[in-house]
Amino acid sequence: MLIEKIDSLLKEIQQAHADNQEQIEQLRLKYLSKKGEVNELMGEFRNVAKEQKKAVGIKINELKTTAQNKINELREQLETQEAQSDEIDLTRTPYPVELGTRHPLTIVKNEIIDIFSRMGFTLFQGPEVDDDKHVFTMLNFASDHPARDMQDTFFIEQSDPDDVTKNVLLRSHTSGDEAHYMETHEPPIRVLCPGRVYRNEAISARAHCFFHQVEGLYVDKGVSFTDLKQVLLTFAREMFGPDTKIRLRPSYFPFTEPSAEMDISCNICGGKGCNFCKHTGWVEILGCGMVDPHDLAACGIDPDVYTGYAFGMGVERIANLKYRVSDLRMFSENDTRFLREFESAY
């Protein structure tokens, strides 16, 4: 009975055919895997009478060899057909598949998020395609501000100039995410908003039409500029080293008052002066300030009860300081030679 079963399997494997690699693999599993026909026959072989063992053993080996040869033959036929075919499968995975690495901007963004997360900030990500209301109006941008001009910002739709919710655009900063968050959450608020933003700028080694930001917002009772300074000093020392110094210079942003630009002591020359810091010893990394009462009121938060601070930085700027990349365009060109340099950076 066992020899008849083997003869039947031999005939079956000799007549087998396959149209693709998946079918060939199914044949291999059926006959040669641990739960396949050959292994099953080996289990039954133990119960064969002594005088029949030699004949049955020869037959099992013949079946195994035939199955292996048939599968190899089918593979060769399929490879030949594919080689001769004029069709190119552009979706096929290239071989060999190499192990990738995180993008340098992702590495830096995650490090920024980690530092502020340890200070109690939670994450919030808003839409990249937003409306004028959240990107500009609620953030105290004047109606004639240049950012509202088609030449400065990527507007997708302006169906009704008098209705800011009908003016749709690619967000020019992630401050709009903070407006979304304040609309739907009550203080205390401590949130971090990372994301990609877009501005109509000439592409060069120092600028691009899109880049990445991380903005932070803290709103509560009794929040002061002193709190902001201490948080930013802690961030700078965590990111660039414990000896890093900061300075705050008065500046202007529509959504904060008072406002400041923050510089850090140059981490290349240690503040002594070099080409990178233009021999000043300082490098600008972010903007910050106390949230304007107009913004709090526009988002439904009582400015007589609550105060807050906000800050924002470009991820590319921080990455440049950490890795000294001379050309911002390298971050978006997908040159694997450049990206491989960061394989051990996380």
Automatic annotation (TrEMBL):
Domain of life: Bacteria
Cofactor: Mg(2+)
Keywords: Aminoacyl-tRNA synthetase, ATP-binding, Coiled coil, Cytoplasm, Ligase, Magnesium, Metal-binding, Nucleotide-binding, Protein biosynthesis
Database matches in InterPro entries: aa-tRNA-synth_II, aa-tRNA-synth_II/BPL/LPL, Phe-tRNA-synth_IIc_asu, Phe-tRNA_ligase_II_N, Phe_tRNA_ligase_alpha1_bac, Phenylalanyl-tRNA_Synthase, tRNA-bd_arm
Cofactor note: Binds 2 magnesium ions per tetramer.
HAMAP family for the chain: Phe_tRNA_synth_alpha1 (MF_00281)
Protein name (database record): Phenylalanine--tRNA ligase alpha subunit
Organism: Prevotella lacticifex
